[in-house]
Q: What sequence folds into this?
């Protein structure tokens, strides 16, 4: 690809940075604009689940993308570690779904049968098996469980650090604290109007998460709507191996990073970009966490924070009424999981368009 081809990316989260790295590998000159610190919003706040088993139970385009991206993840992490020389906490240890009643167990089994048809395998476990391999989990009233061996976790903050490093090594220009105020799409290229001036590029990618559709874009129809869904997360500093896998019960999940941080999440609140911590949401998460891990009732969360998931009518990947403008947002709860496949799809679209210009 000719080195003169240039791309501007609005949004410096894990999605935007992964796209930038992939495009730089193809020989494009890439600039990434972010309204704050790159990776400082949903990427920083995310727990880091790579868990199709906890997300999908019906055939859909999003489910297919998620499964493809999960298959790409080991290679993505390996190459990123090699290129950045930074370690990444990536754990392929599976996930455990718990049932504390016969009705919950029947629901798990019905869901597992549907997932099997999607290519998401799981196996049943008895209460005694759970007690043997997950000794800290509540045993009282446990009716059974299912284990999803393909689910995994990654520390998104490690991903951001490594991606920032490979972007620096790839001569990608990072523009922090530089919000994009307007985007003008024309037949010959795209113009970015930012808080620090105006720049022209051959292609533009909108990857600003929950803020994407609020950008003022000229020359094409209005962007598909995207809204923030606030999610609370809490974390406990715990001894290593307290939670060996993802553990799920109902709408709550728990996982433990390599540094010992045991995270419980997450609420879902459509309150706009309100960053205030809601004590009732924190209390509900703490109650559920201590239900699953009874010893947590004896302590308080060491950390509490919120993030904004980007909710749209679907995940938007590809050109938007012009081969020069591409969208990469609407990932909702699966932005970290979908980063590799998103970058691959956007890179393929830019590559194809550049050859026809």
A:
């Amino acid at each position: 690809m000719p080195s003169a081809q240039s791309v501007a990316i609005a949004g410096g989260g894990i999605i935007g940075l992964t796209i930038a790295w992939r495009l730089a590998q193809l020989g494009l000159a890439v600039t990434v604009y972010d309204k704050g610190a790159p990776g400082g919003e949903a990427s920083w706040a995310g727990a880091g689940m790579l868990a199709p088993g906890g997300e999908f139970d019906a055939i859909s385009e999003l489910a297919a993308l998620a499964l493809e991206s999960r298959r790409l993840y080991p290679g993505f992490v390996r190459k990123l570690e090699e290129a950045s020389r930074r370690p990444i906490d990536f754990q392929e240890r599976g996930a455990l779904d718990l049932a504390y009643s016969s009705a919950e167990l029947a629901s798990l089994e019905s869901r597992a049968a549907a997932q099997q048809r999607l290519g998401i395998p799981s196996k049943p476990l008895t209460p005694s098996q759970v007690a043997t391999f997950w000794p800290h989990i509540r045993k009282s009233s446990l009716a059974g469980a299912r284990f999803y061996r393909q689910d995994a976790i990654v520390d998104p903050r490690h991903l951001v650090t490594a991606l920032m490093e490979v972007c620096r090594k790839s001569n990608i220009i990072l523009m922090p604290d530089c919000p994009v105020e307007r985007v003008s799409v024309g037949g010959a290229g795209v113009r970015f109007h930012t808080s620090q001036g105006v720049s022209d590029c051959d292609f533009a990618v909108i990857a600003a998460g929950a803020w994407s559709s609020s950008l003022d874009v000229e020359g094409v129809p209005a962007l598909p709507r995207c809204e923030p869904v606030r999610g609370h997360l809490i974390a406990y500093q715990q001894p290593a191996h307290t939670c060996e896998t993802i553990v799920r019960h109902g709408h709550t999940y728990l996982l433990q990073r390599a540094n010992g941080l045991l995270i419980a999440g997450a609420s879902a609140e459509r309150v706009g970009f309100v960053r205030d911590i809601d004590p009732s949401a924190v209390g509900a998460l703490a109650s559920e966490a201590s239900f699953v891990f009874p010893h947590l009732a004896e302590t308080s969360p060491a950390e509490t924070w919120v993030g904004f998931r980007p909710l749209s009518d679907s995940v938007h990947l590809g050109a938007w009424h012009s081969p020069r403008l591409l969208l990469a947002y609407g990932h909702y709860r699966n932005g970290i999981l979908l980063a590799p496949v998103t970058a691959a799809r956007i890179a393929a679209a830019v590559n194809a368009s550049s050859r026809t210009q």
